[in-house]
C-alpha cells in the first residue's frame, strides 16, 4: 500500500461503506508513474459464510497504467442479532462503520426519542 498515492491516509467516511469501487477524490497520483487517470480493481476475493451471516470482500486498487499497488480494500458485512453491521478499511477509500436494524422500527432510535 502506498501513502504517497493518496491525499489523506484512511479518511473518515462516517457510515459510507463501499463494497466495490474507488474513492477517486482521495487519489492524488500514482507514486510510481505519476498517472492521475483511472484506478483498476484486481485480485477481488469474496468470502461468504451464509450460516454465520457474514461476508468479506478484499481487493487491490492498482494504477491503470503501471499496476502499482495503491491500496488494499477490506469490506465486511455481518448480522449481529437484530442488526446488520458494515465496515470498511482502505487507505484510499477510508474507514467507516454502519449499523442498520433489520426490524421495521429501530429499537435504538425509538429509545433515543423519549
From TrEMBL:
Any one Gene Ontology molecular-function term assigned to this protein's record: zinc ion binding
Signal peptide stretch: none
A single GO BP: positive regulation of DNA-templated transcription
Keywords: Activator, Developmental protein, Metal-binding, Transcription, Transcription regulation, Zinc
Gene3D superfamilies: Transcription activator, Churchill
Transmembrane segments: none
Family: Belongs to the Churchill family.
Protein name in UniProt: Protein Churchill
Amino acid at each position: 500500500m502506498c501513502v504517497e498515492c493518496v491525499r489523506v491516509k484512511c479518511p473518515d467516511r462516517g457510515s459510507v461503506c463501499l463494497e466495490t469501487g474507488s474513492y477517486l477524490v482521495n487519489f492524488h497520483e500514482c507514486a510510481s508513474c505519476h498517472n492521475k487517470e483511472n484506478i483498476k480493481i484486481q485480485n477481488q476475493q469474496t468470502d461468504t459464510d451464509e450460516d454465520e451471516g457474514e461476508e468479506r470482500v478484499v481487493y487491490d486498487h492498482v494504477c491503470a497504467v503501471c499496476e502499482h499497488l495503491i491500496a488494499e480494500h477490506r469490506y465486511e458485512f455481518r448480522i449481529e442479532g437484530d442488526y446488520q453491521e458494515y465496515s470498511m478499511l482502505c487507505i484510499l477509500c477510508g474507514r467507516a462503520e454502519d449499523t442498520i436494524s433489520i426490524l421495521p422500527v429501530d429499537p435504538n432510535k425509538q429509545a433515543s426519542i423519549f
